[in-house]
Specification:
Blueprint (H helix, E strand, L loop, with lengths): L10 E5 L4 H11 L3 E6 L14 E2 L2 E2 H5 L4 E5 L5 H11 L4 E4 L4 H6 L4 H7 L4 E6 L14 H7 L20 H22 L10 E5 H6 L3 H10 L16 E5 L4 E5 L3 H11 L14 H6 L1 H12 L4 H10 L4 E3 L3 H4 L3 H5 L3 E6 L3 E6 L23 H13 L1
Parallel strand pairs: 1-2, 1-6, 2-5, 6-7, 7-8
Antiparallel strand pairs: 3-4, 9-10, 10-11, 12-13
Helix pairs in contact: 1-7, 3-16
């Protein structure tokens, strides 16, 4: 085709389960890579059993993160199957694994040194809970462990409540995204060389590290003050008003991020001569300190009209505002649909399978959605034949 996907011609062997690794593999597949998903015989990726819901025996969880792949069942403890895997890896561009213990990978002859000796161009990406260095390196880790360990869960939830898990697996998704970024960078570093040997490298991505990166501005505040952040619920730690706030019929979001927006906001609420001139609320710092009083005064006005009316008025004035949607509202929203954020693929058992697209728009070379999430071992014969052809070269 005139504008091929950016990773066309790149082969990825993905031996991962659950979410972080499969999410990484799916993004590489969306970008055009040929992704071979290596699964345990009979049971496969553990997420195949995570349900309900199941659709024609397929887990909705598994279906959400495994498009654009081919599935092959291999028992890496069996010498014949390990030979098949090695045959694939001898010419692959990328290997992705989420085995948490390097000792297990060495026993299976799937460690970075062994594979580098077989294929110097291979990009080896290891995704695990704690990474492969440091005192906690051998620990297993799921998303919820990373959320707790990395300091975000303690700050999530209402001020008078306990710690809360973020409702989607953000450590897993972040780990998958960071692994993808690192793989793309390593491919670029490998393939831009002029002369000499273009070599691959080992990439080590930890869910705890990925989740810790979310501390960003919160960490900056702690570095500056040494003070432990408080749990603020839906309030922003340094900007007010920037939060859900109550209208007459329901809650909505307002984001008054600077002084200019604050002045516009006050004009719309007709509080220029009252709240806006109150010394307690003149500056953002003052609004932060006196947040509770300010929000109470604002809600006394905002609850006189419906959320949709206020949102329209704010948007006309250039003030960021929006509704608080449930997922079904988001996934049927005209803007989300117009942006192409819903992928539809025909599945031989299910019919149309929908999933969330890669969230990037390209002017020329972009993602392509070619393959439905494969059934367990669906491509056993063709992948084994491919491995045999590659080994015979």
């Amino acid at each position: 085709m005139d504008n091929p996907s950016p990773l066309e011609g790149i082969r990825v062997v993905e031996m991962t389960e659950a979410l972080a690794g499969p999410y990484c593999g799916m993004m590489l597949g969306d970008l055009g890579a040929d992704v071979i998903k290596v699964e345990r015989p009979e049971t496969g990726d553990q997420s195949r059993a995570w349900g309900p819901p199941f659709v024609q025996g397929e887990s909705a969880y598994y279906l959400s993160v495994n498009r654009n792949k081919r599935s092959v069942e291999l028992d890496i403890k069996a010498s014949d199957d390990l030979a098949v895997l090695h045959g694939l890896l001898e010419t692959a561009d990328v290997f992705v694994t989420n085995n948490p213990r390097m000792s297990s990978l060495r026993r299976a002859s799937l460690d970075p040194d062994t594979l580098a000796a077989m294929n110097e161009r291979l990009i080896y990406a290891a995704i695990s809970g704690y990474g492969h260095t440091g005192p906690k390196a051998d620990r297993g880790g799921y998303d919820i462990i990373a959320q707790g360990e990395a300091g975000l869960m303690a700050l999530t939830g209402p001020p008078d409540g306990g710690p809360s898990r973020f409702p989607t697996p953000m450590a897993d998704i972040s780990g998958g995204i960071y692994a993808t970024i690192a793989i793309l960078s390593a491919l670029y570093a490998r393939d831009r060389r002029e002369g000499g040997l273009a070599r691959g490298q080992f990439i080590d991505v930890a869910l705890v590290d990925a989740q810790t990166s979310w501390l960003a501005n919160i960490g900056g505040t702690w570095f500056a003050t040494g003070e432990r952040p408080e749990r603020l619920g839906n309030a922003h730690p340094t900007v007010t008003p920037y939060q859900p706030i109550r209208a007459r019929d329901k809650m909505m979001i307002i984001a008054v991020g600077n002084q200019r927006l604050w002045q516009r906001f006050c004009r719309i609420l007709d509080i220029e001569s009252t709240v806006m001139r109150d010394p307690k609320f003149e500056t953002n710092a003052g609004r932060n300190v006196n947040r509770a009083e300010l929000i109470a005064r604002l809600e006394a006005i905002l609850t006189k009209r419906d959320a949709a009316d206020w949102i329209e008025a704010f948007l006309v004035a250039g003030i960021p505002a929006g509704p608080i949607n449930f997922p079904d509202q988001t996934l049927t929203d005209e803007h989300i649909l117009a942006r192409g954020m819903i992928v539809e693929l025909e599945h031989p058992l299910i019919g149309i399978v929908r999933s969330i697209a890669l969230p990037a728009q390209f002017s020329r070379t972009g993602p392509s959605y070619r393959r439905y999430p494969p059934r367990l071992g669906e491509h056993n014969a063709e992948i084994r034949a491919l491995a045999a052809r590659l080994s015979a070269r």
